[in-house]
Amino acid sequence: MLWLVATGFFMQTLDSTIVNTALPAMATSLGELPLRMQSVVIAYSLTMAVMIPVSGWLADKLGTRRVFLGAILVFTVGSLLCASAHTLNQLVLARIVQGVGGAMLLPVGRLAVLRTFPAERYLPALSFVAIPGLIGPLIGPTLGGWLVQIASWHWIFLINVPVGVVGCIATAIFMPDSRNPDTPKFDVPGYLLLVTGMLTISLALDGRAELGIPQATVLVMLIVSLAAFVAYGLHAARTPRPIFSLDLFKIHTFCVGLLGNLFARIGSGAMPYLIPLLLQVALGYTPFEAGLMMLPVAAAGMFSKRLVTYLITRHGYRRVLTTNTVLVGLMMASFTLSTPAEPLWLRIVQLAVFGSVNSMQFTAMNTLTLKDLGMGGASSGNSLFSLVQMLSMSLGVTVAGALLTTFTGLIHHATGSSVIPAFHATFVCVGIITAASSWIFAQLSDDVRRTAKKTDPSERA
């Protein structure tokens, strides 16, 4: 079952990393500007965020096997539609179809693991699933750049088809079918409030830079987004079975982990979009060369997965997360060193260190958030966690695109220089956002910080 879940993660990570590397080639083919292609990434991740609450309910109602199989099938069909797109609007619509399938892959797969393994075995199980899933980003950028150069960008989506076929067959044969016989009626009003909040905040942040929405309209959408989220909180407080119960926030580790994920992942979600653009648009790399430069990020991330388990056991969640979050922010800001004159060895080391600390951040945040949910809140809490992950990734690309467009306009208008200073300013901003989120993890209580040590008899002795 772990390998089945890893297959779903592989499809999703392969697609996202290939797309990021191929954005400049897509822009040239579709007659668009490379720095205005963020809608291709945002459409996918935002659709996933919107559909995740439905996927959790469907998994409870129809069973994990049927929903996971349907997710792989829809994702594969969406890939075929992306390959046949001839305009940016068509590509964005096809990415939305992909997002519907991807929305069910991640949370349903994680839910199957959560229901199969006890709490004390969940951390190594999740790490095992994550390591095969890292094969996608390990080969994705290089494979994407290679396909773009020898063929066309369309093949970066067609590559998903054989993986999808194998995944469907394996899921039908081997996936356990767990479901909740007491699944309540779907909370339609609460869902609509959440969707309204997510869509309006994304449009407000991205609309000014990419769509040219007037500033007054952006302000109105931000207010509508805030009102929708507040209204959902009031709705959930008086509804017997809301889509996401507010009781989840009474779990200290879940509350801190969820909020930390929301803000820390904004910066982490921006980097896979920014780095390939920097290498190709500002530093003159070819798509294949840019893909090769992403190998140190993925490889270092894969090897650090096992290290974070040891660090958490040794030092606890609080110390690991507060320190590592600052390190991730500093490594993001360090990309201000990226210039054509930067030595190649320094660039490779920089990418590898970033990949290592970023990977440890993901694993620590994920296990902290889910470790104390238990069977009762597994489905709802897991779906809310996946929603926040996808929303923050969408916001990360949205914020990065808006910052990059703003700084490009300001710097070019003032000096007429290259876009490299605009990239530098953007990296500093996303680094500050990430490092500042360490204050959230600093709120972890002492007993959570020492939990791992208390469970080890040799440590107590």
TrEMBL record:
<feature type="transmembrane region" description="Helical">
    <location>
        <begin position="92"/>
        <end position="113"/>
    </location>
</feature>
<dbReference type="InterPro" id="IPR011701">
    <property type="entry name" value="MFS"/>
</dbReference>
<keyword id="KW-0813">Transport</keyword>
<dbReference type="Pfam" id="PF07690">
    <property type="entry name" value="MFS_1"/>
</dbReference>
<feature type="transmembrane region" description="Helical">
    <location>
        <begin position="246"/>
        <end position="267"/>
    </location>
</feature>
<protein>
    <submittedName>
        <fullName>Multidrug transporter subunit MdtD</fullName>
    </submittedName>
</protein>
<keyword id="KW-1003">Cell membrane</keyword>
<dbReference type="InterPro" id="IPR036259">
    <property type="entry name" value="MFS_trans_sf"/>
</dbReference>
<dbReference type="InterPro" id="IPR004638">
    <property type="entry name" value="EmrB-like"/>
</dbReference>
<feature type="transmembrane region" description="Helical">
    <location>
        <begin position="273"/>
        <end position="299"/>
    </location>
</feature>
<feature type="transmembrane region" description="Helical">
    <location>
        <begin position="40"/>
        <end position="59"/>
    </location>
</feature>
<keyword id="KW-0812">Transmembrane</keyword>
<dbReference type="GO" id="GO:0005886">
    <property type="term" value="C:plasma membrane"/>
</dbReference>
<feature type="transmembrane region" description="Helical">
    <location>
        <begin position="384"/>
        <end position="411"/>
    </location>
</feature>
<feature type="transmembrane region" description="Helical">
    <location>
        <begin position="211"/>
        <end position="234"/>
    </location>
</feature>
<feature type="transmembrane region" description="Helical">
    <location>
        <begin position="423"/>
        <end position="444"/>
    </location>
</feature>
<feature type="transmembrane region" description="Helical">
    <location>
        <begin position="320"/>
        <end position="338"/>
    </location>
</feature>
<dbReference type="GO" id="GO:0022857">
    <property type="term" value="F:transmembrane transporter activity"/>
</dbReference>
<feature type="transmembrane region" description="Helical">
    <location>
        <begin position="66"/>
        <end position="86"/>
    </location>
</feature>
<feature type="domain" description="Major facilitator superfamily (MFS) profile">
    <location>
        <begin position="1"/>
        <end position="449"/>
    </location>
</feature>
<keyword id="KW-0472">Membrane</keyword>
<feature type="transmembrane region" description="Helical">
    <location>
        <begin position="186"/>
        <end position="205"/>
    </location>
</feature>
<dbReference type="InterPro" id="IPR020846">
    <property type="entry name" value="MFS_dom"/>
</dbReference>
<keyword id="KW-1133">Transmembrane helix</keyword>
<feature type="transmembrane region" description="Helical">
    <location>
        <begin position="153"/>
        <end position="174"/>
    </location>
</feature>
<feature type="transmembrane region" description="Helical">
    <location>
        <begin position="344"/>
        <end position="364"/>
    </location>
</feature>
<feature type="transmembrane region" description="Helical">
    <location>
        <begin position="125"/>
        <end position="147"/>
    </location>
</feature>
